[in-house]
Design a protein that fits this description.
By secondary structure, this protein is of the alpha+beta class. About 55% of the residues lie in helices and about 5% in strands.
Length: about 220
């Protein structure tokens, strides 16, 4: 059985969503991020990303970690792409060309979208007073996202999904990254096809199952 190390309130959600899509059983070990704990090194601290036993699996101290037999994988995109390739259609690539496109969209989202999308997630607080410095950082991040978001918009205005006219791991990877920026409405209002595609992804039963599990975890 697959073992997934990491709480669902993390990039681990990507692996869990995909496992629910595929219908594969897995065991989850809820390793929590050390920064969320006041004393991660305390003797009674829960298993976390600084725990010595976890660092044996992930020397970088990052979740998720995927174990499949003797294989240990870190980095969430590597894990989802591995699972999609292992279990194949419909979520994995059908051929080499599709594999290239899956990699393209996954890495594009991770490289061009994720850093600034995380800034929006962490600093944008709708309806709340914010320091001027945070407002500036949010505005700058949103501005930088316009160009890569336009790439998604151009494609999604003409195609229902990113690759192969079906929902694949490319959509899952990109949707989980774009979700970080979803709370910044002015940005998504500029890209209606992308906004509709993301909403479509998030109505999938496997996503809703993952999200319910995520919400059930302590904040």
């Amino acid at each position: 059985m697959l073992t997934i190390h990491g709480v669902t309130r993390s990039r681990t959600s990507r692996l869990i969503w995909l496992c629910h899509e595929i219908g594969v059983d897995f065991r989850q070990i809820p390793v929590i991020q050390a920064y969320r704990l006041p004393w991660p090194d305390a003797p009674d601290a829960p298993l976390n990303t600084q725990s010595p036993e976890f660092l044996k699996l992930s020397p970088a101290g990052a979740i998720p970690v995927l174990q499949d037999g003797d294989l240990i994988l870190t980095e969430s995109l590597a894990c989802t792409l591995y699972l999609a390739r292992k279990y194949g259609l419909p979520f994995g690539p059908a051929d080499l060309a599709e594999e290239g496109l899956v990699l393209q969209w996954s890495f594009y989202a991770g490289t061009w979208i994720e850093p600034d999308a995380l800034t929006l997630l962490m600093l944008h607080r709708p309806g709340q007073a914010q320091p001027g410095e945070d407002q500036d950082l949010v505005a700058q991040a949103a501005e930088r996202l316009i160009r890569p978001m336009r790439v998604f918009e151009t494609h999604l205005a003409q195609h229902e999904w990113l690759v192969g006219n079906r929902f694949t791991v490319a959509d899952l990877n990109a949707a989980e990254i774009l979700r970080y920026a979803q709370g910044y409405a002015p940005l998504f209002d500029e890209f209606p096809a992308t906004k509709a595609w993301l909403a479509h992804c998030q109505t999938r039963p496997a996503y809703l199952k993952m999200w319910a599990e995520r919400q059930a975890e302590p904040e």
